[in-house]
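S1.2 Input.
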Amino acid sequence: MSTQHELEGPSSTGRCRPSRTPHPAAASPPILPAAAARRWQRRYVLAVHVSDLTIVAAVVAAGLLLRVGSAADVADHARTLSGFVTGLLVVACLALARVWDEHTLGNGSEELRRVARAFLGSGVAVGLGGLALQISSVRPWVFGVLPLCAALCLLSRYALRRLLHRRRRDMRCMLPVLAVGSHEVVADLIYRTRRDPHFGWRVTGVCTPTGATAGGGPSLDGVPVVGDLDAVGGLARNGGYRIVAVASAPGWGPPRLHRLAWELEGTGTELAVDPDLVEVAGPLLHVAPADGLPLLRLSTPRLTGTAQLVKDVVDRAAAAVLLVLLALPLLVVTLVVWADGGPAFTVQERLGRGGRTFRMLTFRTTVYGHRSRSTRAGTVLRRHAVDELPQLVHVLTGAMSLVGPRPRPPLAQEFHLHGADGHRRLLVRPGMTGLSQISGRGERTPDELVRLDLRYVENWSAALDMSILWRSLGAMVRGRGVL
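S1.3 Output.
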């Protein structure tokens, strides 16, 4: 990692090192336990919540009292309804924009951008709703009340941030950090966090490749060395740290970083990493420049919550529509397969979300005897992935998804083959199609396909699902049997 600040000559490793003059505030820093850090974080989040909701309620109430939007052709009840709907939409948009995420509060511009996006979205929603319903009374709310509300919320957050920064100058409201990496990079991070207390990080523990300093000492710039690279996982979970900052070091690479990220899920401990170590992209990454040091904060993959609820609703609604539209073709295929001798469907026990088993349906495409062979219809069904369409029933019931991390859910006896990677794929429902199916699965090894499934799990988004579905549809039409 490079620095844009005052530098000394290059170190033995070729990196530029900042001056080792200690920060005045670092003389005997108080160590803030993780429990205390969580308490002040909860209080700060609560203060922002109360501030935002109070401003929204007060501005909406003032608008109603001042009869905003009233006119000769506008009834009182229409004006009142416009005000209440506007207030509810603002709160909903604030929640959807995740403006109260504790990881973005108090630092950087991302917090303010989310607030601005929330109010812009609510303004567009109110304006389009008024236009569709021909309610002229919404105009003053869109062009007057909402901008005022947004400005007050931004000012309130700025004031709270100034108060937080004032406390951090006194080394209060800090987050304990476990720094991982080579001696030079970790020393650089300690120096920078001491020089920039507004950022809120306090390095209270260090892990180095050898478990000691370059000279074999127990501490680095006054911070204790608490372990080597193998100890990072256990220390991150149980050592009382709120941030684990990982930099480049011999023996540390992307696979090890992935395992650490999985270990930290659900612990409330955040992960910040050197960009060279990151293999994920999209909404999981947020820039965290500690005094100019380029670090990326990795958000936990959101496998539950509002986004998952939306995915569930869309999946089931789409499956219901497709089953209705394809009812006649599916009946014809069923009769054709049945007429070829034997049952129309095959049923297999497969593993679904959380390792729960379900009985998965597919159209039968083979005849079993001394030697199994494809039926006359089976070759065509597989080529166009029609044999998988009965799985729409499982999407409708919630056992599967249209897009997921393992297009054919694994058999129970296959689960152990990929260890922790296989377990992680079961965090979400299996899909009828997926990223590994549209990425040349015939040319990839099983381990490469597993990595593609994991990439989907960790980078899920609605846009990614739409892209996979579109490419899958094209492959089906061309007869490449994607599903």
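S1.4 Remarks. Residues 1-32 have pLDDT under 50 and may be disordered.
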